[in-house]
Design brief:
By secondary structure, the chain is of the alpha/beta class. It is built from 19 helices and 8 strands. The two termini are 31 Å apart.
Length: 419
Amino acid sequence: NVLRSTGDLKKARSVYERAIAIHQLNFKEGQQASRLEKCRAEVDNLADKILQLESPSVPVGDSINDLSDDLMKVQLHSLAPADVESDGTPVIVFTDIGRDVDDELSLVLLSALRRKHLLNPIAIIATLSPQDQRAHLARGSIDSMGMPDVPVGIGSSGGVGDDIELEVYDADYSIPSPCIYQSGIELVYAALESVPPNSAQLLCIASLADVATVMREREELFTAKVKEVVVMGGVVSFEIGETLVPDSAYNNNCDISAARYVYRKCQEIGIPTVTLSRWAAYGCPMPPQLLDEMSATEHMVARNIRSVSKISVDQLWNKVRLHPSDPRREKIPNRCDVNWFCRTFMSQGELSKDWKASVWSLVQKLNMYDPLAMLLAVPAYRAAHFAFKEKVVNGVTHLCVGTSERDTGIKNRLALFDE
């Protein structure tokens, strides 16, 4: 799949041919026959594609684009059925990767959870403008971590207006690829149709705009296949009202009407929600040294996460210094000001809002929201490390981890960090 995405079809065919030869050397006739037939089918398919590309009657550029589009359409309608028992819980991830590093760090964690057969990513949707660039980053990141078979789709702008330009950080592996679904919503529908009833998790570590679209357009499919929605965000106090209402957390605030719709509809149709708030992240801060240790592995994703972290923290500092009405804050909540920054990232001391130099050397702790949400999606880790408040609505229990500065929902910070 990686070779396909780079257009090296001949090399991809040779890999399958080697696989066939190795298979014939190591297995008797009839053993693992389905795998052998799959390899042979891939060889035949690639041979046809190569022949079409080499045909002089078709311009090469048009041929490549047409073949890529056709291939993606075929794959969209033939996603392999998810095997919950063997591969773990099927999960669809909605991410605004490229805004800050915790989204990509959560994908690093996802690759490990997949190897443990705890979570089975059946789709990753890149949302929040510019969503196509975020999809390029997601595709390159998971490809380099051994997940080229996980489909990536382009979602919506996430509720952000066309007049607001949001940032996407750079990575050498973030490049356009024909192996990206242009309609993330259609990919979600195909992914849900591939799983057994009441088995899929939705992990929302971004705007809830795309989830709201799925619920509006295909409520019956959503209700039949989704067992739980895990959200990195926040809710208004449990003591207020009889239902859960999203608060002003960034992911909610990107499209607050969509966030309100998702929470209201989930409670109406009986789909459990699990919300991880910012208080939980504050309860388990991570030292910057963790990123240094990851970078020492020399893996391209780890090294990029480390270098981008410094840039991201400095950019955040420059945003919180701005007036709350300044559009350059990019919908960061008003509560995130200079004092908040100092409390969140520094052990002590306070900076003047006039400080213009890099603040990275002063940072003592980092809050990695999305990796915690990823762990929360795994029942064993949820039970071991998180304490939650419960709210029962229409007979269904909804959970929230972290309801205040004192109640972070983290049982043991050191144990969770070691995990």
